[in-house]
């Protein structure tokens, strides 16, 4: 089709809308002519310049009637494409569409067993969740919006069940429809938080999709639909029996967690700082959510697992908490998944990602300050504990060893059974692995200055309330292990 520009384009757009308006009053156009006219409007509407009539209330009303009142699926979909483009390009048109009162018909059309209708209607409703007064609770309660979204997810889960680890060659529109459905699910649950219970039955389908989709591309592990599935998972209420049964199936309690750990490992190896901050933060939050709601060892929900090591909680601890390999050096320096997480915890370019990691490690430590320090070292833990006004017991700052290092054995600790190798509580490194530079011995005066500096630092730390321990320098002075230099000592040192 020849594309006009400038005033000629404006005149053409106006004529097409006039012809379509007349056709609504008294059908005069043949089906093919009607569809050609809508296709031409779609092309012209991609650039709002000199296409203003499309973006008016009259233009939107004409398009909406063809989209929802036409007996022809082809005509309806052609009109929907123009509508979606229009609402995407100019925000003010979204409220105009909502004011026309077609939301109920949109929800009804979303039930069609058609990938194309699912794609177009999901996108249309999604766009109306931005900057309008659309009544999502009413659509959930009276128009079965939640039930329809869940039914569409079910169709995708059945479609993808049993797929081989090879690229999906199915209808590309099906994949696009799944992406729009997941975006819609995220927005509706985000803006209608009081109605999360209506989406409880979505958990089995989300879990199934995450677990059975072919492995992601190593170069973009969180590309759709993986990232979208994770976002929706975080939005929902995972505390219900339906959610727990879907997330931790009795026969394969770690199936979903294994896939998410794979995505995390690939993401940390692939994405740059900006991508980690924007895309991977939600994935880390997902692990905190799963750990919180996973069956605890010995609980009725977790009683059917063969051994404690098979539980979701212990898999998360053993995989994400620092291991003996990490403790050969200062924590965060090894090339392991826990060390990569620790390095990003303190990355100034990923503040939200870092906070999510800190909360995850605290959760994996069962929110115990002592275990938290044991697991990650006081060097990492101190900032988090201070920011969250959590006091550190004195025992957390002593060198740790034995099975107490890491999470407690009762929690399925990642590092239980380590023997009696003591660990530096600040760095998390095994004490017998520490190496120090071969520096000349400090003079007595240097030792005194260092003792004074440490005394001041500990006093300042005590005043913050972060730790409640006695100043070790004061203790050493009281026990006679530190003595003030006499003038004779200074003179002797000067002679040396």
Structure explained in plain terms:
The model is unreliable at about 165-170, about 305-310, about 400-420 and about 490-495 (pLDDT under 50). The chain is about 60% helix and about 0% strand. It is built from 23 helices and no strands. It has helices at about 5-25, 30-45, 55-70, 75-90, 90-100, 105-110, 115-130, 135-140, 145-160, 170-190, 205-210, 225-235, 240-245, 255-270, 275-295, 310-320, 335-345, 350-365, 370-375, 380-385, 445-465, 470-480, 485-495. The chain has a domain at about 445-495. The longest helix is centred in the middle third of the chain and has 21 residues, at about 275-295. The chain is an all-alpha fold and about 500 residues long. It is elongated and about 105 Å long. Helix 1 (about 5-25) crosses helix 3 and helix 9 runs parallel beside helix 11 (about 205-210).
